Amino acid sequence: MTETMQKTKQHRGSRWVVLIIFLVLLGVWLALTPPGLLGKLDAIGYAVCHRIDGRSYHIGERQVPLCVRCTGMYLGAMLSIIFQLAQGRKGKYPPLKTILVMGLLALAFALDGVNSYLRLFPIMPGVYESQNWLRLVTGMGMGLAIGAAIVPAFHQTMWQSWEDRSGLGSWKQLALLLLLAAGLSLLVLTESIYVMVPAAIISALGVYLLLAMIYAMVWAMLSKKDNTYKHYKELWRPLLGGALIALLQIAAFDLGRYLLTGTWSGFNL
Predict the structure, then answer these.
(1) 3-state SS record for 23-46
(2) In terms of residue numbers, what domain contains 144?
(3) For 250, which of 35, 47, 141, 189 could close a Cys bridge (C-beta 3.0–4.6 Å)?
(4) 13-55, pLDDT tens digit by residue?
(5) Is residue 16 part of a domain?
(6) What is the pLDDT of residues 136-186, one digit of tens each?
(7) Is residue 46 part of a domain?
(8) Residue (of 30, 16, 26, 75) closest to 243 by Cα position
(9) Position 23 in a domain
(10) Which long-range contacts (CB under 8 A, 24 or more apart) does 229-235 make?
(11) What is the pTM of this model?
(12) Alpha-carbon distance 60 to 186, whole Å?
C-alpha cells in the first residue's frame, strides 16, 4: 500500500470518527435538554444569554430562547451573513466607510448594553431608562457588524480562490442591508406570533450556526486545509468539525450553568 493510499484511508477513518462523536454528543444533548423544539432552542440560548424574563419577548406567555438584545444580534448576524453569501465568494474586507458605520453600530450596542447592565443595580441607575426596542435595534446593529467581519474571513480562510471584492463595498449595498435590518426590526417590534415564532427559531439556531462557522475556519487551519477548497460540497468536512466543537461548547456551558443554578430558566434578577 502506497503512502498516499494510507493517508487517504486514515483521512476517511478520521471523518467517520468525527461524525460518530458528533452524533453521540448530539443524542446525549437532545436527551438531557428540555423537551420540544423550543425547549432545545432554549438550551442553545441558555448557553450564551442571561434570558432574563423582563428583557425577553414572549410567544403568548412563553419566553423566547434569547433575550431581546441577543435576539436582535443573532437575527442581524444571520441577515448580514446571508446578504453577503448570496453575492458569491466576495472575500475582501469592507472599505473604511463601511467599517466606520459598523463601528458606530457596535459602539451603540456597547453603550446601551453597559447602561442596561447598570440598571440592574439600584445604586447605579444608569444614564437613561432601558427599553426593549432599543435593545433590539442595537443588538441588530451589532449582528450586522459581526456578519460583516465573519463572511470575508470565511471566504479568505476556506477558498483556494475568492473574489477580491466586498459584499458591502458600496453605499448602495450598505444602505440596502441597513434597510433590510430596519424592516426586520419593525417586524419583530410588532411581537406578532407569526413573526416571533420564526424569529425565535432563526435567532437561536443563529447562535449555533455562527459558532459552527467560526470553528469550521479554526478546524480548516488546524488541519492545514485552509485555502484548499474549490467547491461548496467539499466544505462538509470542516463544517462537520465546526459543528462538533460548537456543540461541545454549548453542551459545556449548559452543563456548567445548570450545575450552578439547578434550573433551565433565565437569571432571576
Answers:
(1) HHHHHHHHHHCCCCHHHHHHHHHH
(2) 37-261
(3) 47
(4) 677 888 999 999 999 999 999 999 999 999 999 999 999 998 9
(5) no
(6) 999 999 999 999 999 999 999 999 999 999 999 999 999 999 999 999 999
(7) yes
(8) 26
(9) no
(10) 229/158, 229/159, 229/160, 230/159, 230/160, 230/161, 235/158
(11) 0.91
(12) 19
- Residue 29 C-alpha cell reads as 444533548
Q: Is residue 268 part of a domain?
A: no
Reference 177, options 69, 74, 68, 82; nearest CA is 82
pLDDT digits (tens, 9 = 90+) for 58-101: 998 899 999 999 999 999 999 999 999 999 999 999 999 999 99
- Kindly report the number of other CB atoms within 10 A of residue 178's CB atom: 15
Q: Cα 141 from chain centroid?
A: 14
The tally of domains found in the chain comes to 1
The contacts of residue 9 (CB under 8 Å, 6+ apart) are 1
Question: What phi and psi, each to the nearest 5 degrees, are found at residue 90?
Answer: -80, 105
